[in-house]
Write the structure tokens for this entry.
Amino acid sequence: MKNNKVVVFTNKRSDFSDLLVEQSASEVIVLPTEEITKTDLNDFNGIAILGGVSDEPLLLDPRSRRAIEEQILKGKKTFVEYVASIGHVYSSPPERTRYERLVYCSAEPTIKDLKVGTLIENQCGMRVKPHDITCSKGIPILQFVRQHAHDYIEVTDATYTEISDRGLWFDTPENLLICSFQISCFKQSRFGPWDEVKKVIAFIMEWLLERDINLEDYQPAYSTISANQTLPFEVELKETAHAAKDWFENAGIILDEGKGGAIEGLGTEIYGDGSQRISKILRADCIGEISLPYLLDYLLYGDPRSLKVSENLSDFVFENYLCTEPEDLFGMMRWTNEAWGVCYQDDVARAIIPQLLKCYYLKTDQHLESCVHALRFLVQTTGTDGTRAARTDNIDLTKGKLQELKERPGNFPSAHYNAYYYAALLLAYKVTNIEEFKETAIKGLTTIMSIYPDTIREQSETEEYCRLILPLSWLYWVSNNSEHKAWLYRVTNDLQNFLHQSGAYLEQDTGYKASMRHEMGEGESSLVAKNGDPIVDMLYSNNWLPIGFIQAYWVTGDSMFKDLWTENCKFFINAQIKSDNPQINGAWTRAFDVERMEVVGSPADMGWGPWAIESGWTVAEISSGLLMGLLEDQLRKHY
């Protein structure tokens, strides 16, 4: 026992305890907390108490506490994590850190190569708030902040004045290092950015073990960059699309092979045990969107099961979400099984575009009549300028209100809310020749382009451009109008101003005009903290581009669009999550830092934070765009 330098007390193994043993097998012994009073603590030079393996903070019983306190008073280095009370410090009940992040505050002591102001994301873990009457008043090492920023903030004296927001600090006496939050499972909880997290972990270990620690080769719980960069592009593309298809199955997204629909996906909240919140809402748009990669997989490989799953998903949408009662709301497509009386036109469009493509490619009229009904309802509630209000709610749709929506301008030139609605109208026109669909789409896109680029932005300027590529492509396909073609090229060229060398397009909002730029947890929020950050959005922006670029190529015949598609697909190959965890392996998240090639971003959005994985908007849309390119020889003839 005398040879052991540090004793770790914990009720469960964790990333931190395993790493201590791995780095210093002969110096570290790990024991359950109940062994504190049975252990001769004088035999050790350092003590670590890890309470973060549970959501409830560890509260030492009086005998265990007395034993630990005696060692602290002797000057023994003691690291205490997520413990309700130690030394002079006691805390309020635990809280989740969903909208908080840690900022590195202290230049003394110095964490090697870590810049003061660096933000650390501890996901949705638990923390306790120390009471200010007991805590050491020095500058902490880490402090919790609620600030909409990407990865860095300016640290001032005001940053660390709130004692209750301390995350990591040396208390009195100075041989006591306290961590107020769960850090034990930092790897499986996917703390980030990874390189910065490792610096914090190495600092704690070096202080405790009194020697240098090298974590350069210590790997995170997931990776992104393609492991084999020498594979031909088409092979990588197929593997990426296949991994995305497997994700729908392995993560439990598709229910009963599509007969029960599909769930929305994963929330951004990652908990202390590494699990992630599941969103089980059944959304018509997501279910419809997921039917498309299965249809395309069938066209590529001829797998009858893929066709059946696609059909099951489409059947679920049209049989359950379309209002068929012979009243004013006939044709209204419901949004979700929860928001039953809500209709978003762009979401309706993405629910039915896969079926319209199926009708067009396979020359079938399956569910075509239902698609027409859904679009007629939208047209009848669209303003005279071709734009439709952000959404309609059945409870408000009296006969008078329905008439008003149709007879007045919508005054809502927003690609976020209307672009894919126009795309669906144009595709439906190709299938049905219903002139009203074509006229409404032309009117709406003309309204948008008349004020472009100053459209009504929801998330960012980047999002508006990305959302316009597909509808403008199909507009030119339908009209063969040179002005409409010029619109497509104008938006595409403007989008290149945001192109990153990775093949992705950075979030940008010139003038910061987007409506969704809220503070932490106050509503839906853009990822844009400040222009120039290396942040990519795969829920609202980049996810629309694989389909958009390949369709633009087929419509125009211009190889420029094929090149843009190729470079964008290379980004998605490298941004796909690769992990032993089936819940995330093969998926793409909302936020992505293209300099780190890691999931990093502001968690300000109350619904869809950095780690949110939307089954339809993100994974289905991206994988469909990859598969379309693989099907070029088969599908291009239709254009």
Q: What stands out?
A: Residues 461-479 form the longest helix (19 residues). The first strand starts at residue 6 and ends at 10. Residues 83 and 156 are 28 Å apart (CA to CA).
